[in-house]
Amino acid sequence: MTDTLLNAVTAVQSDLVLQMTQNDAYEYIHDDTLLASSLWANIALAGLAILLFVYMGRNIEDPRAQLIWVATLLVPLVSISSYAGLVSGLTVGFLEMPAGHALAGEGAIFSPWGRYLTWTFSTPMILAALGLLAGTNRAKLFTAITMDIGMCITGLAAALVTGSHLLRWVFYGISCAFFLAVIYVLLVEWPKDAEATGTAEIFNTLKVLTVVLWLGYPILWALGSEGFAVLDVAITSWGYSGLDILAKYVFAFLLLRWVAANEDSVADGAVATGASGASGPRAVDD
Hints:
The protein contains twelve helices and two strands. The chain has a two-stranded antiparallel sheet. α6 packs antiparallel against α7 (165-197) and α8 (200-214) runs antiparallel to α10. It has a single domain (2-285), classed as Up-down Bundle (Rhopdopsin 7-helix transmembrane proteins). It is mostly helical. The protein has helices spanning 2-18, 22-31, 33-56, 63-87, 115-134, 138-160, 165-197, 200-214, 216-223, 233-261, 263-273, 281-285; strands spanning 93-96, 108-111.
C-alpha cells in the first residue's frame, strides 16, 4: 500500500514537472548557477565575436572572401540567438526517460534541446566557410552541408525520443554515420581542393581543429544525461559551451584573420579554380 502511494505521488510530481511553464524553466535554469553561467558565457562571447568579426571584415572586397566573411559572421549571430532561447527557457523542456535509461524512473529530466537549433544552423556556416576557403565544387559543398544537417536533426531525435531506449541509440548511431560522411569530406576531399587553391596551410589547421573539437560532441552526448548519465546536466552544458566557444568563435577568428590578411590569395585561388563568388564554371561542372 505504501509503495503504491509512493508511486502515485511520484507520478503526480513527474506530471507536474513535465507541465512546467517557460517561466518555470527559466527559474530552473537560473537556480543552478553552474548551468546558467554556461549559457550566459556563450551569449557574452558570441556578442563580442560579432563586433570583432564585423570590424575584421570591414575592408574585405573580393567576392569569395566576402562570402567566407558572411558565413563566418553568421556563426556567432546564430549562436547568440539560440543561446538566448536556451537561457530564457524558450527552447528547453523536461523529459521522462524510457525504461532502460540510467535516469528512468527518476522523474522529468532537463533537456536543452535548443542546442540542436544552434548546431543545425551554425555548423553548416562553418562548413560553407571551409569549403569556400578550399575552393571546392558545389557537389562536395552540398554533400558536406546536407550530411551535417542530417547529423544535427537525427541527434535531436536521439535526444527527444522517450518511448524507446533502444531507438535513442539508433538515432545516435545514424547521427554518427552522417558525421563520418562530414569527416570524410573534411579529411579526404577538401584538402586536395585546398592544395590546388593555395590555401592548404590554413585549411589544414582549421580542418584538424574542427574534426578534433566536433568529435567531443557525440562523446558528451553519450556521457551526459541524454546517454549514460555519467555527467550531470550543468557539467554537460559547460562541456558543450566550451566546445562551442572553441569550435565556433576561435575557429571563426582564425579563419577570418587569415582571410583578411590574405585576400589576394583567396581571390587568386578563386581564379585558379573558377570558383569566384562560388559560381564560376568549375563550380558548376565539377
